[in-house]
């Protein structure tokens, strides 16, 4: 039976628990980012060719996506490490750009340059880029030893030290 006089100790969440919390948050951010990306691409497409419109739309949304995932998915707050996280996020951006640019090139060579074909190609490429992005962010950008427990307020209240015993040990 738990002793109410002793502080409650919370073990660090196992990796599988963190994934089950992170994945739905990442998915919501990803859906919002994809909608913004496709909307911006569609708005830019009448004035830019497909590849430049893709570059601009992806760059704008990738910066916002990294910031949102940093804050909400991986629960990293504050300015410490933000520049490094965004630079590492650019690697994920380049991978996404390669996938989406390749999808557009293949669609134009084999199908057509119709707007619906471009959007379909971008959705497929974005799905692959999203899986890659989650893996990179989780394991490399925010998954290193220095990122666990990173400047995140304890949502369970302040830390409580265990009582000191008669022998002076905790």
Automatic annotation (TrEMBL):
Question: Which coarse location class describes where this protein primarily resides?
Answer: membrane
- Native source species: Streptomyces aurantiogriseus
A family per Pfam: GtrA_DPMS_TM
Please report the record's description of how this protein sits within the membrane.
Multi-pass membrane protein
In which family does this protein belong, per the annotation? Answer: Belongs to the GtrA family.
Q: Which named protein is this?
A: GtrA/DPMS transmembrane domain-containing protein
| A single BP term in Gene Ontology | polysaccharide biosynthetic process
Ranges annotated as spanning the membrane: 23-44, 50-68, 89-107, 119-141
Give its localization: Membrane
Statement: the UniProt record of this protein carries the keyword Transport: no
Q: Which InterPro entries match?
A: GtrA_CellWall_Glycosyl, GtrA_DPMS_TM
Q: Where is the GtrA/DPMS transmembrane domain?
A: 26-142
What keyword terms does UniProt attach to this protein? Membrane, Transmembrane, Transmembrane helix
Give me the Gene Ontology terms describing cellular component.
plasma membrane
Q: Key word Transmembrane helix present in the record?
A: yes
